[in-house]
Amino acid sequence: MRIYELVFIIKPDLPEEEVDVVVSNIQETLEKGGATLDKLEKWGKRRLAYRVQKYVDGYYVLMQYSLEENLGLPKEVERRLRVADPVIKYLTVRIDEDLQRVEKLKAKREKRTTRRPAAAAAAAPGSPPPGEPERDRDEGRD
């Protein structure tokens, strides 16, 4: 299963009803393509980092969706966003690979933490802890 995040920015001077129409059109495209919409967040109007098409503000929308098949769907959604007049910017990112990487790192960390206490208990009571050099017993005597 592939998971994607789609963020797009709509012109700030559009009425709320038209923003909802654009969002529902993209949502409908995703559902017809076989995607399941996991998250839909309307962030509202925010200041852009730089001027885009003479706009300094934009209406941000985040959609997270997952796909079992139909790998051409993200390209189709981006094509529709490119030709949509109200949309001034968009970005699609595949995040399932990042989630898998994070899960692997967590598993490695858990493995390391369970191994450390066992290694410390197995060490002899008179021996120095791992990583510390052994000292000569007569070192401090004169």
Structure characterization notes:
This protein is an alpha+beta fold and 142 residues long. The chain has helices at 16-32, 73-83, 96-122, and strands at residues 2-10, 36-52, 55-67, 87-94. The radius of gyration is 27 Å and the shape is elongated. The mean pLDDT is 83.
Radius of gyration from the alpha-carbon trace, in angstroms: 27 Å
Instruction: Please give the CATH architecture of the domain at 2-97.
Output: 2-Layer Sandwich
Overall geometric form = elongated
Q: What is the CATH topology descriptor of the domain at 2-97? A: Alpha-Beta Plaits
Tell me the span between the first and last alpha carbons.
71 Å
Q: What number is the mean pLDDT?
A: 83
Structural class: alpha+beta
Q: List how many beta strands DSSP finds.
A: 4
Main sheet specs: 4 strands, antiparallel
